[in-house]
Fold this protein.
Amino acid sequence: MSFQDIRAEIGADKILAVSKLQPAAKIRDLYQQGQRRFGENYVQEALEKQELLQDLSDIEWHLIGHLQKNKAKHVVGKFHLIHSVDSLELAQTLSRQCENKGVRQRILIQVNLANEESKSGFDKQTVLASWDELCRLPHLSIEGLMTMPPLTESGDEVRPYFQELRELREKLASSTELTRHPLKTLSMGTSNDFRVAIQEGATLVRLGTVLFGARN
Ligand SMILES: *Cc1c(COP(=O)(O)O)cnc(C)c1O
């Protein structure tokens, strides 16, 4: 399946090209084919690629990998959207760093729906319990939710997680303090299961392997 086929199938605005561990030249190549949104996992690598590709002025960088609090100061204002906000403490740190820099940062709340030890993310109860506090952080704009379901062979096994994320968004969106938090984005689905994710309402699917081939 080529990039153009996938784009024709699901629409350009839903594709986040995950370029971690791929060389900048491959990003440039996909950009030249029309892709604008790129997602990176590692802060250092992402910032290096931003440097290398700074001539591509309308490229949109997303951070999707686990973010340590002590790196928050390096990322605020540098990414269009941070998908991987996985604790209240991290959100608080990001908001403080935004204040220092005089910027506002768009974020997603990462939810670990299967409560897997190996994955980061809020569990559902904690998101609900922390929600008002998250919404009050002055320098963040919460644009939606992100999840990374358990690895399985078939897309259908992950469907319930995608449904659950959509329902959680609906529930949160109907709660009070949301006037400045659009909650429009559902970042879910990867190369393995993006079609199921789209059926369940994903607004962004994070595609690595299917666009770039295997990583190094
Ligand atoms: C690597 C990664 C992806 C992309 O996975 P593929 O299977 O290569 O499509 C998506 N989301 C996150 C959080 C990732 O780390």
Remarks:
- The chain has a mean pLDDT of 95.
- The longest strand covers residues 140-147.
